[in-house]
Amino acid sequence: MPQPELSEEDLLQRAGRGDVRAFNQFQDAVAPRLFGLLRQMMPDGAVAEEALVDGFVQVWEHASGFDPAHGSAFTWAVTLVRQQAIERMRILGRRNRLVDAAVLEQAVLSAPAAEDLTDTRSAAVFAALKQLPKDQRRLIEIAFLKGLTGHVLSETLEQPIATVKTNICGGLFRFRDLLKGGE
After folding, report:
1. Can you give the pTM of this predicted structure?
2. I need a labelling partner for 153 at 20 to 30 A (CA). Which of 8, 83, 104, 171 fits?
């Protein structure tokens, strides 16, 4: 006689008592829906899969704390998996900001000095850049010489995007005037 199929709540409660088979059944039942939610949060499928695995580790470790009186097993699992996804995105964001900061630093350090240039036009460009206020010059050098976007600069420098864009725009107007021979 076949056994009746257990609800997700029953499976999770059994998993909370150490039943690996019940946990595997719960995981099989909810994984596709959880992965779908993670894919909406995270465009990178591989990162979403990693967050799902980490989330299921949390589900297994905390299954004994599940109480069906407070909500469904799926909703409870969503909460734990979502926390893992948010943590992973926070870590990746911090790592990306560190990489961006290193790129910014290298961009500033590798910009050629005007005295090293033999081309008259290039020398004029770098001479004009040196006359810009430091904040504007730095943003223009990084944005245009290294091709970084205003949004990347905003996140990396932890400045509002409007401030970054204003400094770049104002710097470009001043730069244009300096190249035309103005002060």
Report:
1. 0.51
2. 83
- Alpha-carbon distances of 32 from 28, 44, 52, 101, 134, rounded to whole Å: 8, 16, 10, 37, 52
Number of residues that this document lists for the chain: 183
Tens-place pLDDT, residues 43-79: 788 888 988 999 999 999 999 999 999 889 998 998 8
Average pLDDT over residues 125-145: 79
Contacts 24+ apart (CB under 8 A), 160-165: 164/139
Could you tell me the maximum CA-CA distance found in the chain, to the nearest angstrom? 93
Residue 117 has pLDDT above 50, yes or no: no
Domain 111-179 CATH (choose: 3.90.1150.10, 2.40.160.20, 1.10.10.10, 3.30.70.890): 1.10.10.10
8-94, CATH topology level: Rna Polymerase Sigma Factor; Chain: A (1.10.1740)
Collapsing DSSP states into helix, strand and coil, what is residue 77? helix
Structural contact between residues 155 and 116, judged by C-beta atoms closer than 8 angstroms: no
CA distance 155 to 178: 29
CB atoms within 10 A of CB 136: 20
Instruction: Of 28-32, 71-75, 140-144, give the range with the top mean pLDDT.
Output: 28-32
Helix (H) / strand (E) containing 171: helix 161-179
